Fold:
Amino acid sequence: MKQRWMKLINEKPNYSEWVKVYTEKGKIFIIKLQRGGILQTHHGSLSHSDIIEAGYGKMVRFSSGSHAHILRPGIDDNSMKIKRLTQIVYPKDIGFILLKLDIKEGDYVLEAGLGSASMCGALSRYVGESGKVYTYEKREEFLKTSMSNLNKWNLLNRVVFHLQDVGEGFKESDYDAAFIDLPYPVPQLKYVREKLKFSGRLCVLCPTVNQCSQVIHEMNDLGFTQVEMWESIFRPFKTNPDRIRPVDMIYAHTAYLIFGQKISKETEEN
Ligand SMILES: C[S@@+](CC[C@H](N)C(=O)[O-])C[C@H]1O[C@@H](n2cnc3c(N)ncnc32)[C@H](O)[C@@H]1O
Structure:
């Protein structure tokens, strides 16, 4: 037992692993460790071998003398630091969506609108090794960028990719949950409902308030209950303990989120 604790305390990253270098000024660098690699920043340089030598949670120094700590990146870092070709879902919304969709190990989740894979990264992380995310994206360049983003986080094998316009619906069925992030979601909702399990959960992300009324009408007509609409408003603060105050610039609005659970209609046979 004693040996196990020693191992945890002195854990070190390996070559090919992604690490977060968090500087004393609060800058974040997420890098893949490579033999002979050097991180070049405006704080000076730092060799990858020094990072490995130091280990997780430990301090390293750039050539300028300023310091940083070596940390494990999480899905919040991944979302903010991914290569983006599209608008993305932000961490403040991701956490709430995962909760309201009740995403868990073993779930089969439909995603329409892969974009840059910010949300897909989180969904695939939480469905675990035994679950799957079935994602649909119509633009090849977005799909390729997303695959490379997901590969960085070792999540590629949890995702089934369809390079396809969702205008004709979805291939699989019996999804536990569905997440829809499309510019025009309303026409697709009938296909989503058709393939969701009864009681399965849906989240539709709408960037503008105009679409929300149409989405809610459609969900009520198709057969969803507990229809809720949310906007998450987060206010980050500066954490100098002697000068705590809100940060000057915040993401005031990201998205409206509409949720519901599929129900059977009286006219429906199954
Ligand atoms: C805002 S982005 C999604 C962002 C993504 N949720 C993320 O977190 O990175 C919307 C995506 O939907 C895709 N899209 C739009 N209409 C589509 C359609 N009819 N079928 C499939 N994909 C579509 C776009 O190409 C774009 O990549």
